[in-house]
Design brief:
Blueprint (H helix, E strand, L loop, with lengths): L12 H4 L4 E4 L4 E4 L4 H5 L8 E4 L5 E12 L6 E6 L5 E3 L12 E6 L5 E13 L2 E10 L10 E4 L5 E4 L6
């Protein structure tokens, strides 16, 4: 009900999983690249990705994690690249200690259950790109995956994803 009334459908992971594509947020489009030709004309960082595993150790081949440097943290966080998220969400164990003002909001988990979340402003770096954002610290939700949080694909002007039957 919250989506634009002009939308006619959803492209699922079953389609994206077998395609190379460019998410072009600056032009509000997805461009498929069947032969990889688009990749040769794009500029920007090539960022390493890591597979996502469950806490039990099983591989989740449809998901990818991206190393992200967060202000005041020496080790990179591995955030799940998520086209459905609209904010950076961190797991409580990896949230940096409070150094500035924090806010309070509500966040829903994968089952739609709402819980309190703490928010704070921080700086994130992915490759050579750095941007300021409001990060949310969720108190529930992502416990079944071995990741540090969520990184929305909307954080980038353009994002090219090359697939070979898995992200």
């Amino acid at each position: 009900k919250a989506f634009d009334s002009h939308l006619r459908g959803v492209i699922g992971q079953d389609v994206l999983l077998r395609s190379n594509f460019l998410i072009d947020n600056s032009h509000h489009r997805i461009q498929f690249d069947g032969d990889g030709a688009l990749l040769s004309v794009l500029t920007g960082d090539h960022v390493s990705i890591a597979p996502v595993r469950t806490r039990a150790g099983a591989l989740e081949p449809r998901l990818i994690a991206v190393p992200v440097q967060i202000a005041n943290n020496t080790e990179p966080l591995h955030l799940l690249l998520d086209s459905g998220a609209d904010m950076v969400v961190l797991q409580p164990p990896v949230a940096p200690p409070a150094t500035g003002p924090r806010g309070s909001k509500w966040i829903a988990d994968q089952n739609g259950k709402s819980s309190a979340a703490t928010t704070f402003h921080t700086t994130l770096s992915v490759g050579s790109q750095t941007f300021g954002t409001e990060a949310w610290i969720g108190n529930a939700g992502l416990t079944f995956l071995a990741i540090d949080g969520l990184l929305p694909t909307g954080s980038f002007d353009q994002l090219y994803i090359a697939n070979h039957d898995c992200f």
